[in-house]
Amino acid sequence: METRQIRYFLKVAEMEHMTEAAISLHVAQSSVSRQISNLENELDVELFIREGRRVKLTPLGKIFYDRMKQAMNLMDDAKREVKEYMNPEKGTVRIAFPISMAAHTLPSIIYAFRTRYPEAQFEMSNALYPDLIKGVVNGEFNLAMIAPMPIKEHEKKITGTTLFTENIVALLPLHHPLANRTSILLRELKDDPFVVLPEGFIFRDQVVQACNVARFSPQVAFEGKDIDALKGLVSAGLGVALMPESTLVDNTPRSTVMIPLTDANLTRTVGVIYPTQRELLPTEQLFYNFLLEIYERLNEFKK
Amino acid sequence: METRQIRYFLKVAEMEHMTEAAISLHVAQSSVSRQISNLENELDVELFIREGRRVKLTPLGKIFYDRMKQAMNLMDDAKREVKEYMNPEKGTVRIAFPISMAAHTLPSIIYAFRTRYPEAQFEMSNALYPDLIKGVVNGEFNLAMIAPMPIKEHEKKITGTTLFTENIVALLPLHHPLANRTSILLRELKDDPFVVLPEGFIFRDQVVQACNVARFSPQVAFEGKDIDALKGLVSAGLGVALMPESTLVDNTPRSTVMIPLTDANLTRTVGVIYPTQRELLPTEQLFYNFLLEIYERLNEFKK
DNA sequence: ATGTATTCATGCAAAAAACGCATTGATTTC
DNA sequence: GAAATCAATGCGTTTTTTGCATGAATACAT
Asked: What are the entry keywords (chains A, B) (predicted)?
């Protein structure tokens, strides 16, 4: 069982297609086919079902995939750890975050971090809420920004810290009747069309729940698959939206206005998580400490 | 980073000797040397210090060793899991246990298990108390019998069940003044020479502590490095010993006599542990369930 | 101190493994 | 039913690994 075989296996499993996997791996299709075959021989097990011209993982193959994914992540991390050990400030931070932080929160953190450590590298990916947690648990990445902070249920496998609490605000088109107010109550929007994220996004659920607390069900007019899409929809006058305040800092779209909500508890907690079982890589540890330090000072300042 | 390199690396790290590692791996020394060198080149790091004709892990090498050990255990386990998936009853149970269970407890359990699953295989190893826990955590084995059951401190990483509670009894030479009694108090042995396990064995500490509870410090005459050695020492009349009852069942040595102790709480809990983070392999799961079932019935019967 | 025995690293040829190409047979698509 | 796509396989080529021989450095014994 050589890592080359495992790498080929993982790629084929993900693509469910040998030829494409071979292209993606920059080797001939025959090589991939043969290595997979060797692997199956060694394990004495069918990992793929050849149905017609497709290959799909068998149930057993899926189990094997999960295990190998984890093992390879472990090995890759170890490699990075060893390489970064001597000078962490030149290493790489691999971090994932929800789309809502892509525009402002993350960039400003990274900017600050790179001011102190100019040679640090970043690998970023965004993911939906459950995948952030899953990714941290199975080692796809070791750090994730997340909002809201997950609760007890995952406590055994992930550890984290709340960095700050931010307000949720309303974004209205400029010609909206309430656009001139300095603040509103959420319930005042009960008859407005809402633009929200699609099902599956945690922030959509938070919006709907907030409305329910304000004793109405939001009338969903449009769905946009990221925060910027929502902004566009509001900007076009197609509805109103709720957003975390940080996504609007320095970035309120044209023809819209941001209005604070005076409802109680209309906030979300933003934090960072990492796996309990594994240690952070040197550079990531540096970044994590940096995060805590920065936000501790910032929160202190707010008081 | 190929698994061949990692296997060579692990062996060299353990033996601190390339030539011996090569012999143990059934390859030429030059191959091992070359692969280690390749690995170091790829990682761009010194894994070993060449001091004279020895090789020792650098501090960084130690970190890498731990990571790789874990990764390889994961891969090996995955391989076994996949192979055993189809028919668990033909698979292998890898289990570790303290020496005190080597004579009676383990063999009788295994005998019973093999009566139901005649094709099951066993790989057994014994280890000191802390290594039992360490081994389960880092994946050297997935199951360990252990006594006493460890407490909270490791709760996050290991899970386990208490199987039964057994009495601790005294083993006396046949000509001992108390040898004809049907039971004694531990304190009656306060002036006797004791034979005990060496430092580092948990059961030694238990014995000493039990004596302290009986308000005396045992006078240690001899140390034997396993239970059978202790039995021999008692049999030769060199002292008295305390032992878990199960180690004497069907096996009281010649010229000795086993006497129950009437002190309260002179018992130890015997249990089985497995890692919280990983799932048991199919055959091991079978064995674990078997254990629970057997001892539940047995404990029921005792009442 | 000097010689001898070990031990790890390296050059080089042999063996083994992986690769790419071409082709086959099976299946899907139009 | 023809064309296209895909995975498997035979085969010659390339790459990698191995083993042997050797060299350099160190430890040990006398």
From this structure: DNA-binding, Transcription, Transcription regulation
